[in-house]
Write a structure and sequence with these properties.
This protein is of the alpha/beta class. It is built from 15 helices and 13 strands. An eleven-stranded mixed sheet has the order 1-3-2-6-8-7-12-13-11-9-10, sandwiched between helices. Strands 4-5 form a two-stranded antiparallel sheet. The longest helix has 22 residues.
Length: 469
Amino acid sequence: MTATPEQNLADLDAGSLAARYADGTLTPSEVAESVLARVAEREPELNALYLFEPDEVRADAAASTARWRAGAPRSAFDGVPVTVKENIARAGRPKPSGTAIPNPPVPDRNAPTTDRLLEAGTVIVGSTTMPDWGMLSSGVSSLHGITRGALDPAHTSGGSSAGAGTAAAAGYGPFHIGTDIGGSIRLPGSWQGVAALKPSEGLIPLDVPYAGRAAGPLTRTAADAIRLMSIVARPDPRDYLTRPYAEMDWSTEPLSPVGLRVAVQLDAGSGLPVEPDTRAFIEAAAERFASAGATVEPLDPFVPADVLDGLVDFWRSRSYADLEPLSDADRARVLPFIVEWCAAGAGFSAAQTVRNRGMVDEMARLTRAATSPYDLVLSPVTPVAAFAAEDPMPITDPLATMGHISFTVPYNMSGQPAVSIGAGIQADGRTVGLQIAGPIGSDDRLLRVAHWFETVRGPGATVDWDAVR
């Protein structure tokens, strides 16, 4: 379909919006109307938003417009539209975590990320959908139904940051925040062609931190991910896993990998085999790095299958702890796939559960040891391209391991940053992401290298965003 000029404003990146707000050629209210029009057009099919209050969006945009006119914006990105995943607390708004269980918790205060966004004056368009308890790699939810991919609604959104990935790809504004414990930001990134960062542990503070969990940006470009990080990557005492990181340089200048030592991992040592198209795209990306002057060498698998299996089994037990106290009526409201998946956790002894929990630490140890000689590690984000939107996982047996997260989850456990950036587009239109990982605290460099890769990967690997509407 042909987009109107009003709708095209929804496709402007945050840098362009900031510049035009500053010079007075565009207002946040005009952009908000464009985004609201895009949501009205695409949301009935895509189903990316859980909470969406257009009147509030207009009011917040009007307040931002007034601040710009008064010469008193809260930040350079005052008035830029943003979405947040539904499990990121917004005071007074329910947080159901994707399940249809009634009476979801209602937080009495914002998460740190929400506070940083509001302090910067961004306009929250809404909260985005997720699958039940965030334990699926799709947009299938007992509460929301199915969230679909914006590039092709027949395909999965990815998950668990399902709505965030779809909102980014569909153009519901430039900024989107998801969460990730095993790939939940990077999987939607790979399957919807957007830039997606799982940052260093504690760099973006959480109000519910635990080992492996992170919040991070999903944006159409690496430059916008950098801009969003400049807002939300700030310490907050509510996150006990945060640490005193050195100040980072959130420059949007592309950074060539010349002189860097770069590893390429094409076999994770566990999980699903890498599809031929995916392997070819990652090999081609590695050649781009070598041609730019990086020293590129292969990296052998470093996480055995039993470590991945033990971690997944620990997650089953943790989710069973949420399932077990529910009444029969409430348990029946949870997605059946999730019920079967986590009910398997009931069968583990206390000793086995402790051993399974130990796989978090073992995976962290193995990952740091294997990657420490390198400045960057390249790999697929996931072995497979996008699957049907109706499927909960690429592997549809709930008792099987999560064989599609073998490249992503190690960096959750090790606390290292890892970004997904588009590496190629298959003949059928499905996108494939390149994962670039680095040492803890190198997030700014990682994103600048990803931005560099965007400039050299070629048009055949770049989504035509003008066609995505």
